[in-house]
Design a protein that fits this description.
Elements (H helix, E strand, L loop, with lengths): L11 H4 L2 H14 L3 H30 L2 H27 L12 E4 L1 H4 L9 E7 L5 H16 L4 E7 H10 L1 H8 L2 E5 L1 H16 L3 H19 L17 H15 L6 H4 L5 H25 L8 H10 L10 H29 L7 H9 L5 E4 L2 E7 L2 E4 L4 H4 L3 H11 L3 E2 L1 H9 L6 H4 L2 H12 L3 H11 L1 H5 L1 H6 L13 H17 L6 H9 L5 H10 L10 H12 L7 H12 L3 H8 L5 H11 L2 H18 L6 H18 L8 H15 L5 H9 L3 H6 L2 H16 L5 E7 L4 E9 L4 H11 L4 E8 L4 E9 L5 H19 L5 H6 L16 E5 L7 E8 L4 H11 L2 E11 L2 E10 L8 H16 L2 H4 L4
Parallel strand pairs: 2-3, 7-8
Antiparallel strand pairs: 1-2, 1-4, 5-6, 6-7, 9-10, 10-12, 11-12, 11-15, 13-14, 14-16, 15-16
Length: 930
């Protein structure tokens, strides 16, 4: 690789003047009393110079935002420091006037440092090459350099080897081979370095390209698996994540190994990339280095994960500003994900080129398909004269296929789907280069729109739509979709970008339709019962439900408007278009009602029935809601939410059918109890009957079977041991929560006491299910965020919470005293802003006033809210606690102390004022109302 200094601006040498520093080191050597004093003084001098150079590099990065240039600058400074140390070691410390042949050494940069690019907190990888085995002189020089670097506070990876040993190890170990591939001469004996490079080419690289490529691609797959497979995870790893810097490095390693190039621009001459693709490579690299260098400078450590806490800071450092509907941080992250996508495209291009030259085996899928259909190696694609089958992948028959008929840009995806073919990278590359053909004429073409609807509603739609999206065709063909490509939502609830979420929802809808996943029993059953002509519109509604994210207007309302404009183009009539728009406008309603309303309150059900209007619309909304919640990310959909959705559906059905229900309420309660009897056979019938009679109907409707069985065992064991209060601890790994099931005599302040005990242990409540038995015993299940990886540690924390609850109920402990000592708010939530909102409503219940509270979650919030409500002389009849990432949404059904609704406007205003103040002031976390 060329000398780093060749690419640098001239001002770097004024900041780090090697000649001046070398003279200062010589002066130190002359004046120091002994070697130890000299080494220490030299380390301090270089440490100060390095700190000044880094400060200058950071200032320049903030000014010009050129990440690659910053990485080159830092690398140049490091190179110069190592040269200065080598000169000091060989001239002042271990000078050999007439060196023997064995007293030669080449100091070489390897690994990431060898690439000539360096992040502020990166490790330094050095290889000391000797002509033969280690000598005393070689050991002393290497140690002098290393000890001084360590004294400067730098992290150094190092090895000392002869050329023979380096070659032998490179043959045997792929990591060492990659490290040697990246070598760059720093100082010392150039002949040794040249010998290493020449022999490495001849004895290691020749004839092993396929082996190296396979190893590096397998390594890449494993790295992605560890970092999280999707390149659209909202807290990406800039170095090791999909579409990150390591992918660009892998790409260059492979190219360097196979084509024996020294610089990326050489790949253009070799025909691997065209000039445009090379510019994309450099643009991606520069952007990712800007992000990474800023992350290191900001944190002062080698931080590679772009966490929520850091995203806004980096966005501001890079100069992003907020626009209507999109925060600065969301615009930055959208750019990040677009870059990650381009890195993926470049990797596909290189792999295609390697495959053509047989340096890389054909994809596994293609090999499997080839065995199944041995006679279809090459040939025309059935139903498409413009396309051929190339190794079980669809490819273009002639280069101008898209230009001759732009509908082919849609047709290629439908034909691949229909014939179960993978996509040839060359075809995808050609599609991406032909995006200018996707114009208004193509968007209005009836055949193109019909083909798209077939893609959306046929097998493997998620995979095919994802390939359309990666090629850029989907966002051009449906421009509203193009606006949400790579868009992230700056919150902790959504795990993926908006486009990735929508595509995953389509895959989940197909899973629901197949009906072989127990997660989706109700939705799968309803899917079989919807009117057949509504199937396509349901797929369209799922595809479009978040299409208007990132706009100033509410995305449900704006999305309905998009659907009304877009759907006629796909052949939907006016009634179907209106139904799709309605589903999009109401797509959050069922989830909200199920999770934050009292489903045993008749008014809740009547209000929901008034929204959904018909059983058919409710079926469609139930399926859409299920797919949407499941598509948010792992662990968000669970048995409890499934049960709530199921209960809301079956409670509302009789209202919509005028009293007739396929499964009326009494029968459903009986069915739930019979299901429990059938599954739970541990007790005699008399005991079972008595236990069943202890629970109100709402319990049987709203709790899932597995939890009912756990409750029964827990209640019996607790009562048998004679405890007034008992706590059972469970772990839900999918949701990363610990579940506390608490059995205690019911008490007006019980929820507040439980919430306070959790907060005193630093536990954040994310869900709560609260039930009371007919004999006055509370059976509450509280889900708290995990703090420890090991279940044993979590179990001990849960036991402490139980002890606190017991002591407070018995009057041995005052919660305000405990809360005063509680730890401060967790930093994890600080990057987020959630506007406090309090809604007080008497229309959602005939008996109760409903208070809905929404704000930024924090440990102790539920305790503060319940305490404040009680101090406002209100009785809490039921509470519905839910957390959506960093947003807490808690709903309380309350009355005044006489059991009446709160109707006076002045009283409602006072309640609202008190609760908004509590939500808005984090100080309340430190000084809870008590």
């Amino acid at each position: 690789m060329d000398n780093v200094a060749a690419n640098l601006p001239p001002d770097v040498e004024t900041v780090f003047d090697s000649a001046r520093i070398a003279a200062a080191i010589s002066a130190l050597a002359d004046n120091a009393g002994n070697d130890d004093i000299f080494r220490s003084a030299m380390a301090q001098l270089l440490k100060a110079e390095l700190a000044a150079a880094r400060e200058a590099a950071q200032a320049k990065l903030l000014k010009d935002r050129h990440g690659r240039r910053c990485a080159e600058w830092l690398c140049f400074v490091q190179d110069e420091i190592i040269r200065l140390l080598f000169n000091a070691a060989t001239r002042h410390l271990y000078h050999s006037p007439t060196p023997s042949d064995s007293e030669r050494m080449a100091v070489i940069a390897t690994g990431g440092y060898g690439r000539g690019l360096m992040a502020p907190e990166s490790d330094i990888d050095l290889l000391f090459i000797l002509p033969y085995k280690q000598t005393a002189w070689g050991e002393q020089v290497a140690e002098a350099i290393l000890y001084c670097l360590w004294d400067m506070g730098l992290k150094v990876g190092h090895a000392t080897r002869s050329v023979d040993e380096s070659i032998r190890q490179a043959r045997a170990d792929m990591t060492i081979r990659t490290s040697v591939l990246e070598t760059r001469f720093l100082t010392g004996d150039t002949a040794l370095y040249e010998e290493l490079v020449t022999r490495f080419d001849k004895e290691v690289v020749q004839g092993t390209a396929a082996e190296f490529v396979a190893a590096k691609l397998a390594e890449r797959e494993e790295r992605h698996r560890r970092a999280g497979q999707s390149r659209y995870l909202v807290e990406p790893n800039v170095k090791d994540g999909k579409g990150g810097l390591r992918d660009l490095h892998t790409l260059f390693w492979i190219a360097k190994y196979v084509y024996r190039v020294r610089e990326t621009e050489d790949l253009v001459q070799r025909g691997v990339f065209d000039a445009q693709e090379y510019r994309t490579f450099r643009r991606c690299e520069d952007f990712l280095w800007s992000v990474r260098c800023n992350m290191h400078f900001h944190t002062g450590r080698p931080e590679e994960r772009l966490s929520f806490e850091m995203q806004r800071e980096i966005a501001q450092r890079l100069g992003y500003t907020s626009h209507p509907g999109m925060q600065d941080v969301e615009r930055f992250m959208k750019h990040y994900f677009l870059i990650a996508k381009e890195v993926g495209d470049l990797t596909a291009i290189l792999c295609s080129k390697l495959e053509d030259q047989e340096a890389k085996p054909a994809p596994v899928l293609s090999r499997v398909m080839a065995r199944l259909r041995p006679g279809r190696k090459r040939g025309r694609v059935p139903g498409g004269e413009d396309f051929i089958i190339d190794n079980n992948r669809i490819n273009l028959a002639v280069p101008d296929v898209f230009k001759r008929d732009p509908v082919n840009l849609i047709r290629i995806f439908r034909l691949a789907q229909k014939n179960n073919l993978a996509f040839h990278p060359d075809a995808m590359r050609a599609a991406t280069r032909s995006l200018n053909l996707v114009n208004q004429k193509l968007r209005e073409n009836p055949e193109a729109n019909s083909l798209f609807l077939e893609i959306l509603t046929s097998n493997d739609a998620e995979t095919v739509l994802r390939r359309m999206n990666e090629a850029g065709v989907l966002g051009r063909f449906i421009r509203a979709f193009g606006q949400i490509v790579s868009m992230m939502q700056f919150n902790m609830y959504h795990h993926y970008t908006v486009d990735e979420h929508l595509l995953r929802c389509i895959g989940i809808l197909q899973d629901i339709e197949r009906g072989n996943n127990d997660e989706f029993t109700v939705a799968s059953d309803l899917m079989r019962k919807i009117r057949p002509e509504h199937r396509a519109l349901l797929y369209m509604a799922v595809f479009l439900h978040d299409i208007a994210k990132g706009r100033p207007e509410d995305h449900s309302i704006a999305g309905a408007k998009v659907a009304r404009r877009l759907c006629p183009r796909f052949g939907f009539n006016a009634a179907d278009t209106e139904l799709i728009a309605w589903l999009i406008q109401e797509h959050l309603t069922m989830s909200t009602v199920a999770q934050s309303r009292d489903l045993s309150d008749r008014k809740t059900i009547e209000n929901f029935a008034a929204v959904v209007q018909s059983v058919e619309q409710m079926k469609l909304l139930t399926i859409l809601t299920t797919a949407d919640i499941r598509g948010v990310g792992p662990g968000v959909w669970n048995g409890w939410k499934a049960q709530l959705i199921r209960t809301l559906y079956y409670e509302t059905e009789p209202v919509l059918t005028g009293g007739f229900s396929e499964v009326n309420r009494a029968q459903r309660i009986q069915h739930a109890q019979a299901e429990f009897r059938a599954a739970f056979t541990e007790w005699p019938e008399s005991e079972l009957n008595a236990y069943i009679a202890r629970h109100y109907p709402a319990y049987w409707m709203k709790v899932d079977l597995a939890r009912k069985i756990r409750h029964a065992r827990f209640v019996k064991a607790s009562e048998a041991s004679g405890h007034k209060l008992a706590v059972n601890v469970g772990f839900d790994e999918a949701r990363a929560v610990t579940e506390l099931t608490i059995l205690a005599p019911d008490h007006p302040w019980l929820l507040s006491i439980i919430a306070g005990a959790c907060a005193s242990a630093g536990a954040n409540i994310v869900d709560a299910q609260i039930y009371t038995t007919t004999d006055g015993i509370a059976l509450d299940t509280i889900a708290i965020s995990r703090e420890y990886d090991r279940d044993e540690d979590e179990g001990r924390r849960a036991t402490r919470i139980g002890d606190t609850i017991e002591q407070v109920l018995e009057g041995k402990l005052r919660l305000p005293d405990v809360m005063a000592k509680r730890s401060a708010v967790k930093a994890r939530l600080r990057p987020f802003v959630v506007e406090p909102e309090v809604i007080i409503n008497n229309q959602w219940s005939d008996r109760y006033t409903v208070i809905e509270v929404s704000g930024l979650d924090r440990p102790g919030l539920l305790y503060q809210l319940t305490t404040a409500i009680s101090k406002l002389n209100l009785n809490i009849a039921s509470a519905h606690v839910a957390t959506f990432g960093e947003r807490a949404r808690d709903v309380f059904y309350v009355t005044d102390l006489l059991g009446a609704q709160i109707t006076a406007p002045t009283r409602q205003a006072a309640i609202k004022r008190a609760l908004v103040h509590l939500l808005a002031n984090e100080d309340n976390a430190e000084k809870p109302a008590a």
